[in-house]
Amino acid sequence: MPTSVSNAASVLLIEPNRTLALQFRELLAKSFSTMPDTMMVDSLQEGVNVLRSREISLVLVDVELSDGTARDAVRLLRVAAPYSAVIAFAPSGNEESLLAAVQAGSHELLHRVLPSTQQLTLAVRSAFIRARSPKISTEALQASSPTAILPATVSKLAHDLNNALMSIKGFADILFARLPAEEGLHCCVEQIKDSCDRASLLTKELARLSTDALS
User: What whole-number distance in Å separates Cα of residue 60 and Cα of residue 15?
Assistant: First the structure.
């Protein structure tokens, strides 16, 4: 059974259902060794505004929000706070929404709402680990088998590159929406988005190849 999360953290919960939001806050209090500073907002836009104004360690987001699809919600949150850990959940348990959240960069999923304290604690700890993505040290590289390290390193690089591409595309989406169709730069932004999509496919293929090499 996972122990409580020891990190002092600031948490942002994006959930329009007030009752559910309060239940999540109670669970968070049990998951952390000290009560985290928890903010609750009703909408994706409110959440993005909070992330732009202050540092948040952990974001929990309902990916069935009415003001954005699962993929758009997580992508915008990652752009606004690239170093925050993000956990996505779908109150209905919709697997399609959860998978879209993973594709957009969610660090962890909650497959059940409400989760148990143990399930939430494990999800929070996993999200923190994935968000921090510590680099492999030189000593670890020298002590490990090169044939085993290379695919793992390639997989991590593919993951990090894909995250960077998502951030670029997220900013491009924002710019694209604000530029008039007749504006000359509109076409340039569209090319940036298309290039990001093509590059993202390449990173996925790279990650698949590294996974095959490890299997």
Answer: 8
What type of residue sits at position 24? F
pLDDT digits (tens, 9 = 90+) for 172-215: 888 878 888 777 777 888 888 888 888 888 787 777 776 665 45
